[in-house]
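Hi there,

I know you've been waiting on this one. I reran it after we fixed the sequence typo, so this is the corrected version. Both the input and the resulting structure follow.
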Amino acid sequence: MRLKGKSLLLVGLTLFSMFFGAGNLIFPPGIASQAGTATWPAFLGLAISAVGLPVLGVVAAARSGGLDQLCSRVHPLFSKAFTIVTYLAIGPCLAIPRTATTSFEMSVPPFAGPDAPLSLFRLVYSLVFFAAALVMALRPEKLTDRLGKILCPILVALIVVTFAGCLVNPLSGYGAATGDYVTHPVVKGFLEGYQTMDTIAALAFGIVIAVNIRARGVEEDQAVVKGTIRSGIIAGVMLLIIYAMLAHIGALSGGAVPNPTDGAAALTNVVGLLFGPMGNALLAVIFIIACFNVCVGLISSCGEFFHTLFPKLSYRGWAVLFALVSMVISNAGLAQIISVSAPVLGVLYPMAIVLIALSFFQRWLEGRRMVYPVAILFTGVASLLYALKDAGLPLTFLKGVPLASMGLGWVLPAAAGILLGLLLSVKKA
């Protein structure tokens, strides 16, 4: 038996729901509001890093037997370290808390008075939010029925309503391009796509998607892999369409109200102009559903992974632990979480990209055991150095590396690592 028809569509919708959360709502309109007339070149870059790479990540993880198996081609110790750091980043340390914080910022302060105790409101909101997400995450095999059938269609419908409003009333048109979007919009859009975290999340979501596929009667391993890949393609197409809608909304926002502080502000400006007071309510519902979907998916994925790695604590125990830790961190606030996530993603993302790229050449890399370790070593060191430079360390020599001025200074070291790995493998043979 293989996954097809309605079942395939529902699993694809489930994966889309797990991807589409806080960052996915914020960054496309935020990019477009700054890119203005360069929105679509910037969107091309965003599509590569926030749609193309996640889909390839799902395919790579499925074909490799999971993130841990893919990483083991580098070294068993690297596999354990990278997978743990990745799951913590997309889990309780960054991405899960961001779901609650972002949805709170968009759904509570706009309706609270100027003297409202927002810290207390945030605490209460996070308690309710994570309690509800935990209840749903405790049955990971039911996610397709709950996310795919119910919450995902509601979310898509609400975004389409907002987009339709922009078509009926195009406001003032697109604004002027600003900053790096004037000189290299494609690369800038590509780098901003890191913030969605979807490429590293794609490597991790395979566990939960496989559970949902097996729950629909598909047992053969190869059929599960094929079902996972097809689900990834469906999710990718949906992401591309929704991102295009959000980019158009954000570009109009930048034209109507120049220089918004971020994507959330860009969305708020547009819905306010289009729908008046009801706009904030519409936006609040969109953010709550999107962030809730991702929160449930991430708790499930992280719980499954850590239970497999450390089975003494049950899946339910891990899920409860991650929900509690995420609730605590979410109360630090959105700005603090994003400021921490940027350098972490700057280190993780290049290595994830290289792992995914190499996986598609595995047939030709069999027996060439030095390629993965040397390529990842060079990529990881370069990414870490650039993260330290961005943190303020005086590493001025890094400016001379090709593509460094565009934020892609790791590309040449990665290529050099691959070539050196090939040469070392030939010499060993």
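Quick highlight: Residues 221-256 form the longest helix (36 residues).

Best,
R. S.
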